[in-house]
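can u do me a favor
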């Protein structure tokens, strides 16, 4: 349930249906703990407020040239808002929505605009590359808070359905990252968790609009609102979530943060570097460096070796346009239209500059040579194997020693991927760890607890029953659809 505090606007009331739809949407990345945001919502309270009294102070270091650029942006924004508001005010008077009419009287960026003009005046005659340190007090329209197990999300009335829904999902991402409810209050890592909450929000909405294409404007609003944070002092790290969403979706950021959240050292040189980069507003040339630094911080916190996560470089401009511009449109706008069709459809699109786009429907049959196709029934099986694991692609592991089958299965899934599931035993060791457990057991006898593979140690000293249980958990976590057979 969504609890109101104060008088809710028409915007809030119309948003409830959308928020409930968002709550009911099954989202795989929340598993295995939750199936949807609604299950997470049931563990906390969400209050809708007329005004949220929540402010924070941030420090930003920026050049005079950037300040002058921002002044021009704010002046243009102010002019556009004033023109739009004149049209809205009349509608508000007709509906007697005096609270919104009063809000429209004031341009929220006015204080910032006047302060920036004053700073430029104080540094008159100095070069544009002069660095100025500014402390800002920011007002936030939403927050997630917790004391003990009493968790709560507070949302301010923003008078716009898309804004309220976008804010709700962002705060629910914080609640998800804090779902273990450790300690007296959530340990939000400012320059790490905020961009990843925005990243998680955009990924959630991408899947949401595939099922509910009527809400595609909600995704567009969310992307633009996150991206716009780059123009506001003290909020650049929020904007970085959009860059990660666009360029680094191949990284399991959510799983990394869940595993590393309570282990990140905010006093480490890496974290200090990340803080300095965001306070100085990184330009485009530093974005990949910033993503790598963020990744290094998270992997270091959980004892995993780092690796290069370089953005894919396109071989041609055509490939870049297809990947970054055309495919997202097909995925978001065209795929939902074709979703109900039972037959395979192949289109050929031809574009010539200055000419109308030519679309041709192709009748094409995909043929697989019989020699290359192998059915599972024809695969030779080891009837003496106590444990057999079959992958959907036909790969079968059926070693005579169950431990070997177990380790080979984990190796095929990916050591890093299995480590991210976070299957920690009672001794504090991950199923796939970078640490070797001492071979002396509690009773003093020597045991080989783990199998070493490269720089990783796979915990393999299990009974077959426990192996099966672990593999089932991993299969469910990644939706692998493994067939796991106990042949004892």
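np, heres the sequence
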């Amino acid at each position: 349930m969504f609890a109101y505090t104060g008088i809710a606007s028409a915007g809030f009331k119309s948003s409830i249906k959308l928020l409930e739809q968002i709550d009911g949407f099954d989202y795989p990345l929340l598993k295995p703990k939750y199936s949807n945001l609604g299950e997470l919502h049931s563990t906390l309270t969400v209050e809708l407020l007329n005004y949220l009294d929540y402010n924070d102070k941030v420090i930003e270091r920026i050049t005079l040239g950037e300040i002058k650029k921002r002044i021009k942006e704010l002046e243009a924004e102010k002019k556009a808002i004033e023109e739009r508001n004149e049209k809205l005010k009349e509608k508000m008077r007709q509906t007697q929505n005096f609270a919104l009419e009063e809000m429209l009287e004031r341009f929220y960026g006015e204080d910032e605009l006047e302060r920036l003009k004053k700073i430029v005046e104080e540094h008159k005659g100095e070069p544009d590359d002069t660095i100025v340190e500014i402390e800002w007090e920011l007002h936030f329209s939403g927050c997630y808070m917790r004391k003990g197990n009493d968790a709560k999300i507070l949302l301010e009335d923003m008078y716009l359905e898309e804004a309220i829904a976008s804010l709700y999902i962002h705060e629910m991402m914080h609640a998800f990252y804090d779902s273990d409810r450790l300690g007296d209050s959530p340990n939000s890592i400012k320059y790490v968790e905020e961009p990843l909450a925005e990243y998680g929000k955009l990924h959630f909405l991408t899947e949401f609009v595939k099922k509910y294409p009527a809400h595609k404007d909600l995704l567009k609003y969310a992307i633009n609102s996150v991206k716009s944070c780059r123009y506001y002092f003290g909020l650049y790290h929020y904007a970085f979530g959009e860059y990660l969403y666009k360029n680094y979706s191949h990284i399991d950021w959510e799983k990394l943060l869940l595993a590393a959240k309570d282990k990140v050292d905010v006093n480490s040189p890496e974290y200090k570097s990340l803080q300095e980069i965001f306070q100085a507003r990184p330009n485009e040339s530093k974005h990949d460096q910033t993503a790598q630094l963020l990744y290094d911080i998270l992997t270091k916190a959980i004892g995993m070796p780092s690796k290069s996560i370089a953005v894919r470089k396109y071989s041609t401009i055509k490939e870049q346009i297809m990947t970054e511009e055309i495919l997202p449109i097909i995925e978001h706008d065209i795929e939902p239209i074709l979703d109900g069709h039972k037959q395979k459809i192949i289109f050929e699109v031809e574009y010539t500059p200055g000419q109308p786009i030519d679309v041709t429907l192709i009748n094409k049959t995909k043929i697989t040579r019989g020699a290359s196709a192998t059915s599972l029934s024809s695969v030779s099986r080891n009837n003496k194997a106590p444990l057999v694991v079959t992958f959907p692609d036909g790969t079968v592991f059926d070693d005579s020693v169950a431990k070997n089958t177990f380790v080979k299965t984990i190796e095929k899934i990916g050591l890093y991927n299995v480590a991210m599931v976070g299957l920690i035993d009672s001794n504090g060791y991950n199923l796939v760890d970078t640490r070797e457990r001492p071979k002396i057991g509690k009773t003093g006898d020597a045991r080989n607890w783990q199998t070493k593979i490269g720089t990783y140690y796979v915990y393999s000293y299990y009974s077959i029953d426990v192996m099966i249980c672990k593999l089932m958990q991993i299969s469910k976590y990644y939706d692998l659809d493994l067939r796991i057979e106990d042949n004892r």
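The longest strand covers residues 55-63. hope that helps!!
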